[in-house]
């Protein structure tokens, strides 16, 4: 049979995004190269980001969404650079793609890897394994509000930033979390809100959660306030399996989770349009890391793990598992970047991953 060729749009964007996307592409091409011709990637790279903004005044081409919409997936680096205000760069590229392509479920697994020291005393790669499901289309990042509303004069500016919670938006991401829990060893969903203080949107979320939970009696559930959940991440992480939360709360909790696993540089994520009407987008959780960018120091594992999530989405779960084994073999061998206390470069880790794949065929 002819190889399945997947058309992937690569958007490295800014800072370490470029380094880790290059590394991820090299590892994914090596994997495809040893698949015995079973599949291949046909990449097209787009030069969008803060440098593009400096030249053109926009973060992506005007017809960018039109050009992306027929790809099988989007492989993204990170957006943001000190030359452009962060809210302009984020809304102009990453959030524009997520929102226009209705990538409403953001899946962010936290894996504990062998050879990586966690700041958690109890961390054990066999017990700690959870996934944050982030509502990715509304909530606190709905972009609703405004500034300087009623002309209160100099020094009296007022800003309103509203959250949007719809029953449909809550229900689809909560159902997604339950479906995911049913594929895991521990069938449990923890819902996170702050509904004691945010009495409209988050109370609606809690009500929808209780209703969906009633449809899934085989899945254990809990509803936890976000402040308590942040403590629980540190003190009782072995009780977590699937954690579902609104856009902002899940954004914060997933950075906490990846730091607990050892580094933000390890964390992978998938921005999914589960109906597959639009391409989904796969990206490391971290940002453009201007403090280390351009020096070959970035940890590529978050980007490579995002490649594994892309393989799952493309219907290649065995290849994704192979990639995870290569990641584990590399960290177990002590080939670690500086964020994990090691001395390896981005290229050293990339080469080690490719060697581990070659050994595993
Ligand atoms: P950041 O994630 O870029 O960096 C936070 C810390 O983690 C830094 O010390 C950095 O060196 C370290 N780090 C991040 N990725 C790493 C990697 N692969 N290997 C080793 N260490 C790594 O977050 P920060 O500094 O708050 O934001 C920098 C820029 O990135 C801003 O412009 C921000 O808006 C943008 N950003 C973009 C995101 C995206 O594109 N999805 C997500 C988060 C931030
Ligand atoms: Mg974040």
TrEMBL record:
InterPro entries according to UniProt: ICDH/IPMDH (IPR050501), IsoCit/isopropylmalate_DH_CS (IPR019818), IsoPropMal-DH-like_dom (IPR024084), TTC_DH (IPR011829)
UniProt superkingdom: Bacteria
Cofactor names: Mg(2+); Mn(2+)
NCBIfam families hit by this protein: TTC
Record-level Gene Ontology MF annotations: D-malate dehydrogenase (decarboxylating) (NAD+) activity; magnesium ion binding; NAD binding
Source organism of this protein record: Streptomyces radicis
Protein name: D-malate dehydrogenase (decarboxylating)
Gene3D superfamilies per the UniProt record, alphabetical: Isopropylmalate Dehydrogenase
Pfam annotation, one family: Iso_dh
Family: Belongs to the isocitrate and isopropylmalate dehydrogenases family.
Key words of the record: Manganese, Metal-binding, NAD, Oxidoreductase
Enzyme Commission identifier(s): 1.1.1.83
Residue intervals of the Isopropylmalate dehydrogenase-like domain: 7-353
Catalytic activity: (R)-malate + NAD(+) = pyruvate + CO2 + NADH
């Amino acid at each position: 049979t002819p190889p399945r060729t997947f058309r992937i749009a690569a958007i490295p964007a800014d800072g370490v995004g470029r380094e880790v996307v290059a590394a991820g592409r090299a590892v994914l091409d090596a994997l495809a190269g040893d698949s015995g011709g079973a599949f291949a990637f046909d990449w097209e790279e787009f030069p969008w980001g803060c440098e593009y903004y400096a030249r053109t005044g926009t973060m992506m081409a005007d017809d960018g969404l039109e050009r992306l919409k027929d790809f099988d997936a989007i492989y993204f680096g990170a957006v943001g650079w000190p030359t452009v205000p962060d809210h302009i760069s984020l809304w102009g590229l990453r959030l524009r793609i997520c929102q226009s392509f209705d990538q409403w479920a953001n899946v962010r697994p936290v894996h504990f890897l062998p050879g990586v020291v966690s700041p958690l005393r109890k961390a054990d790669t066999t017990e700690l394994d959870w996934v944050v499901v982030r509502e990715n289309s509304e909530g606190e990042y709905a972009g609703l509000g405004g500034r300087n509303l009623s002309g209160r004069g100099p020094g009296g500016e007022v800003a309103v930033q509203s959250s949007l919670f719809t029953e449909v938006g809550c229900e689809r991401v909560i159902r997604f979390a339950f479906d995911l829990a049913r594929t895991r060893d521990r069938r449990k969903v923890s819902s996170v809100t702050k509904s004691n203080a945010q009495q409209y949107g988050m109370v609606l979320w809690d009500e929808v959660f209780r209703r969906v939970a009633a449809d899934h009696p085989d899945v254990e559930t809990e509803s936890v306030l976000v402040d308590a959940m942040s403590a629980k991440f540190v003190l009782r992480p072995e009780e977590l399996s699937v954690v579902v939360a609104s856009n902002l709360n899940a954004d914060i909790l997933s950075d906490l989770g990846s730091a607990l696993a050892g580094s933000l540089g390890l964390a992978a994520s998938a921005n999914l349009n589960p109906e597959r009407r639009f391409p989904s987008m796969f990206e490391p959780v971290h940002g453009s890391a201007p403090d280390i960018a351009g020096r070959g120091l970035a940890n590529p594992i978050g980007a490579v793990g995002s490649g594994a999530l892309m393989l799952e989405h493309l219907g290649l779960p065995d290849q994704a598992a192979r990639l995870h084994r290569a990641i584990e073999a590399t960290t177990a061998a002590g080939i670690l970047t500086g964020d994990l206390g090691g001395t390896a470069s981005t290229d050293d880790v990339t080469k080690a991953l490719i060697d581990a794949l070659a050994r595993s065929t």
